[in-house]
Amino acid sequence: MRLKADLTLLIVSIFWGSAFVAQRVAGQMGSVYLFNGARYLLAAVVVLPFALRAGRASNWTGQAARLGDFSNPISRQEQYQWMFIAGFVLFLGSAFQQLGVVYTTAGNAGFITSLYVVLVPIVLFIIWREKAHWISIIAVGLAGVGAFFLSTGGRFEVRTGDVLELVSALFWTLHVVILGKYASKFEAIAFSGGQLIVCGILNVGVGIFVEKSMPLNFPLLGAIIYTSFFSLGLCYTLQIWAQRHTPPADAALLLSLESVFAVLSGWLVLDERLAAIQIFGCVLIFVAVLLSQFKEWNLRGKMDVTHLVEGR
User: Fold this and answer.
1) Side-chain-side CA neighbours of residue 274 (13 Å)
2) What is the pTM of this model?
């Protein structure tokens, strides 16, 4: 079962990494908010039957979802409140990410997005005063240097798209922390469905005013269907199942391969190429991601918030 779960997480990372190619295709057509709105709402439709079933099983109060300490039952109003907050942060992260791929490559977007793993300890320290492990500090430094090489090619010239991807990584970080701190109190699939709906509605709302319409052609429709069914709907469901059968540290390492598959997919499908110095930057970021999870082998039984990210 452990091997099957690990292979499942590897498949999830492949889908998540290749999703950046689909997002890049949509970005080249100038579609940001309406594209996001369509794929998140469609993903919500995919998840909704499972969410309703899970919600009925737990009576929307969380007492039956044995993911933590439920000595203090959560009200339906509080669940909706945190669904909206998580969905709003998800909206900001997805919007900046999709806007970024308009101006940068799928590979760059994938690697810069992966920085959320090493940014989580920083946010936890700034907001909750949780001290960062010394390994995390080294990982942040490596990731910063790697991001510089990847974005600039060794020259002091940061591209707009890479800056937008970095901003999105900050919101992904905040989203991950929120899920780790609060979402574990609720039924996971129902909570995911709720935040997907909020994110989709906000994207559509902004898109109506900013973009007014989006081109309806086969490549764009294909990107919407691929990301909603596979990257969001299917992969999230698989992730929930797999992480019940594999240690958190293993899960993090396997899911961190998302950034590698983003570069490979960009190269194979879009013929995106990186200079040697940019490849070196990718290596540094990847090492930083792995290093940031290395300490988890000494923290068995402790759930890391970096394994609760639910939307791409």
Assistant:
1) 29
2) 0.83
